[in-house]
Amino acid sequence: MDTDAFRLAACEFPCDNPGLSHGAAWICRSLTGMPRAIVRAAGGPRRTDPPLSEPGWPQTEAPIERSDTIPSAAPTEPAPSPPPSQPDAFSELLLIAKAILRSRGHAAEHAVDAVFLQGSVEGVSDGARAALVQLGHLRAGEAEIAAQTRALLAGWRSALDGSGDLAACGDTTLDGLCAELLAGLEGRPGARDELRRALRTRGVAAFGLLSLAA
Predict the structure, then answer these.
(1) Is residue 111 part of a domain?
(2) Which residues form the domain of 21?
(3) Closest C-alpha to 211, from 160, 169, 164, 163
(4) CA separation for the pair 70, 57 (Å, rounded)
């Protein structure tokens, strides 16, 4: 019996028995690829189907190495440190006054904070008290400098820090007032002009600090 009469023009899909049909045979070159028609002449030799692989893919897969080690995170740079805080203007003035006394060899710089900040002469030597009395910044026998001097210091502090104006400073100049107080702390009223020049050299002007004018 001639079985060619029972052969179909094209095989079914999937093509499990390509010998039972003529013409196109539908095959897939990969497990998930689209089917393609492979045409061969009727009665011709069978075509050997190519291996199931995608073009350009390796026939064998290299083993995948596994690692249970979790890669460490990249080191992060520490946050930059904030810049050191700058002293306020009045504190800068006190630092200048102390530096001047220190450079002149006087141990009276500890009294700068007491006089300029608290308006007190506690701990000040008798010679310094006498000099402050002579300069008009202290009344004899009292533990606090004169009220007018305290008001002038408060006015200059407000003006330097920007919370006040020069109206509260009266007719005084910053370098002049500081020179008189430092001369008093040294116990040498006659050193007022010398100390005023030292203050100007360090940036203490008549109406403020030169560092604030930059």
Answers:
(1) yes
(2) 7-38
(3) 160
(4) 30
